[in-house]
Amino acid sequence: MPYPLEKIRNFCIIAHIDHGKSTLADRLLQATGTVTDREMQDQLLDDMDLERERGITIKARAVSLRYKHSDGEIYQLNLIDTPGHVDFTYEVQRSLQACEGALLLVDAAQGVEAQTMANFLLAIDQNLEIVPVLNKIDLPAAMPDKVAAEVEESLGLSGESCIRASAKMGIGISDILGAIVDSVPAPKGNADEPLQALIFDAVYDDYRGIIVYFRVINGAIKRGDSIRLLRSQRSYEVTEVGRLTPKMNAEKAGLAAGEVGYFIAAIKNLSDVKVGDTITLDKNRGTPLPGFRELKPMVFAGLYPSGETTFDELREAVEKLQINDASFTFEPESGGALGHGFRCGYLGMLHLEICQERLEREFDLDLVTTAPNVPYQITTRGGEDVMITTPAEVPPEGFDQIREPVVELNVMIPSAFVGPVMQLATERRGEFKHQDYLGPERCVLTYHMPMAEVVYDLFDKLKSATSGYGTMDYDLNGFRESDLVKVDILVHHNPCEALAFICHRSVAERRGRAIVKNLREEIPRHLFEVALQAAIGAKVIARESVKAMRKDVTAKCYGGDVSRKRKLLEKQKKGKKRMKMIGSVEVPQAAFMAVLKANDE
Amino acid sequence: MTIPPASNARHLYLHIPYCAAKCPYCDFNSIAGREDEFESYVDALLEEVGRLPVGPYETVFIGGGTPTILGPQALERLLAGIRDHIHLAANYEWTCEANPGSSDAERFALLAEHGVNRISLGVQAVQDHHLRFLGRVHDLDQARGALALAKQAVPRVSADLIIGLPGQTRSELAATIAFIGEHELEHASVYHLAIEAGTEFHARYQRGELQVLDQDTSRDLLEQAWSGLAALGLEQYETSNFARPGAECRHNLAYWRQRDYQAAGCGAVSTLAGQRMTREKHPGRYIAAIQAGGDAAWQVEALTQVELIEECWMLGLRLADGVDLAALQALGDASERWHETAVVLARQGLIQYDGSRLALSPEGRAVQDAVTVALMPG
Fold first, then answer.
1. In chain A, whose CA is at the least distance from the CA of B160?
2. Beta strands, E only, A431-569
3. Confidence class of residue B69 from pLDDT cuts 50, 70 and 90?
């Protein structure tokens, strides 16, 4: 007996980072008795340590709430959590597609921010019913009336309809639950049609294997069903289906149209499970759901073992990481001095940092990450178009054309900061598109800007240019031709691919100089003078040198301290072995980040 | 108890841990202000000496601490006790360390009377402000007086000096070299100041209260010292040791040539047939262990083949004669492993290497550790 559609509501919470999304989710769980106060861990939905530490949601999760409405009926409210960072926009989109409504959470002190706007637009695109909520009204700095007016002006929602709440203090929670039932439409769908279910997330669990989170659009799914993933064209037998309460709660009868839950089947590779894919039955096949998009990594960096870590350990770890994070990609790469490693692709810099931290923590690895870069398109001398993910792939004979990814960037700022932000955008090769006001004091600036200027550190620069008030959001806008050059870094006349980078010709000299200067600080003195050069082709654009070592003598060594002095030399030798060899030069791992640091100067 | 390996070691080190004051740079096993312990320490040391093979020994070295801090009676008992048990080879060398602050004609006469024929005097610096910085209890006049007394008492005298002191000028260093010349010393040990772990200087350095010289200044001072000493006819036969030909310290050469050596006393180290034993460092515990009939072993190392090879490089490169390539070969470090490295280092002017001899050049001497590490296995 399928659960009656009119008693189901599927919703998500969308918000700018730090506007209190996870706290509100927790409060809804508590208010509906889904979890007891005793079970309540702060921010229950963020169950990765990293997420809790960073205070952001990385992976989307879902939970079913049983809610007794004022009409006396019991409703099944399925809350689908969404990631809160621009790197994970695609995952947000998938989560939205599984819902009929969204709580739009706005900080009553901060107002509408770039991601509020971006997520709102995504939700409108999916035809979701929006329930605006002003959070943190208990704060002394809260200005609910002003923010309500801003919501009305910038988002076109009625300011009157905004629910005033404080998730922290438990204010307005019952109003929110009521509004979900009253405003969000019940799902449409038919349990009797062939199965069509949307995968909005999947995780790898050490004990249970791959767990797939999905929303049934039409049809039904139960244990023992032979299902098929339409994208990957693979079939599996379902071993368990259930709801998330938020623990996995197996449901013998299975789930039917409108419902949200999880299933487990003997799936080996998470790469077979693509977020956005459609699940159907092997025998009675449904058609694919629209809008599937393969995720494309936009930031690439080399990842190499260091210290005690071996290449095999690294390979095992990246394979496992990919099981848990299908948007992380890797290809074997040989990095010269760095030995064998991987070219890894990430959705953005935050994704890179998270993956790196997870590899270091969960797998206890010692790693060197090379400076990240965006992908480039090159038209070769032979007229062929190729995509490259590392400067090492720039053909030595040059190219006819090089194109770089460009994003449409929206920056939301108090109007007082328009000047400094425009200056920053100009420095970053931004092409101004338009300026829109969100009321008298706030505006949105829209630019087209090379992605390379955005991903690494623009957010930090924006924060400092706007006293912390600026927020931003971006989306890929295609590839553009640009006057880009590959800058080689030569360590004692040996080019080091791991240090090479691609940049705009106008900044090549400044960055080259900054890098060789940083390298000079990182590379210890050798028995000879070490020459450091930055070059475009054969033309040297910057040079520095590490002076030869002048003194390194153990003054005393007699019968009583031979062992100790020997151990000191052994230690010195070990330290040298930890370094990477570029020709005859020993380069410490930190030096490979010199390129990154040079961006700050 | 560790059973000592069979060895007919020809060299003997004896340790006296006591000092008038602990110097802030010193990481040797020394302790200040325990006059009450002197007698029982001499007993214990003689007890241990009594268990050693009788020799003959070619060299004996009494080091410290400050051996001459012992009162004349205790010192005499010690020297007589040593002579009672061990035999000295015909052309023996017997060194005793002394400090200008605890030197007098009576003590030096006692040393000479019992067979000591070499005194190594801890002069350390020739400017009073540097002596104070080093925490020394003597001044320059006392150093001059002690040197004169030593030269009257024994045929061979050496002085220890520290250079590379914070703020040391070229002219101050010139005065240090001139001092060696004025006293017509046949031997001098000239060390660059090192901040050793566990010393007061180290603590001050870590707190940022002690500035050390930069590499370039250090190098300049080292070169000035080396050429100054060469001009006096003192050859750099080891990294920090300079002598007229024939006046080298044979005892220390034994260490650098990887010979076996016996030892007695707290913290003293013996190395016999690849087994290195360090005795209990604390004098009180050493005395108790010996009194109880034990060997006072604190640490026993069986040196591995690789360690012996490493030491062969480390010690050999300290010597002007260089590494004993035949010994290296015998230890199993075939030249195929290091030959190419040696050729590169020779081309860089850091070593002299002609297939039969491998020694540091003056350029290489200044970066000895880095060169050693480059050549060492591992």
1. A556
2. 431-437, 442-450, 471-481, 484-491, 494-495, 501-504, 530-536, 539-546
3. very high
Q: Do B239 and A554 touch (CB under 8 A)?
A: yes
Among the partner-chain residues A528, A556, A557, the one whose CB lies closest to the CB of B315 is A557
Q: Six-digit token pair at B316? A: 């050999």
Is some CB atom of chain B closer than 8 A to the CB atom of A74? no
Name the pTM for this structure.
0.70
Q: What domain range is B371 assigned to?
A: 305-375
Q: How many CB pairs under 8 A join A and B?
A: 108
- Number of structural domains found in chain B: 2
Can you tell me the ipTM of this complex? 0.95
Q: Sorting pLDDT into bands at 50, 70 and 90, what band is A344?
A: very high
- Residue from B187, B173, B171, B169 nearest B232 by CA: B187
* Residues B157 and B244 sit within 8 Å (Cβ to Cβ): no
pLDDT at A55: 43
Residues of A in contact with B314 (CB under 8 A): 557, 562, 565-566, 569
B152 lies in the same domain as B213: yes
- A163-191: average pLDDT: 93
Instruction: Find the closest chain A residue to B268 by CA distance.
Output: A560
Residue A498 confidence (pLDDT): 84
Domains and CATH numbers, chain A: 5-183 (3.40.50.300), 196-281 (2.40.30.10), 299-369 (3.30.70.870), 385-481 (3.30.70.240), 486-600 (3.30.70.2570)
Closest chain B CA to residue A555: B191
Q: Is residue B364 part of a domain?
A: yes
The span from the CA of A391 to the CA of A381, in Å, is 17
Instruction: Give the whole-angstrom CA distance, residue A199 versus residue A262.
Output: 9
CA distance A580 to chain B (A): 15
State the CATH number of the domain containing residue B355: 1.10.10
Identify the CATH number of the domain in which residue B46 sits. 3.80.30.20
Type of residue found at B309: I
- Nearest-by-Cβ selection for A559 from B218, B240, B255: B255
Q: Which of residues 77-136 of B touch A (CB under 8 A)?
A: none
Residues B58 and B194 in one domain: yes
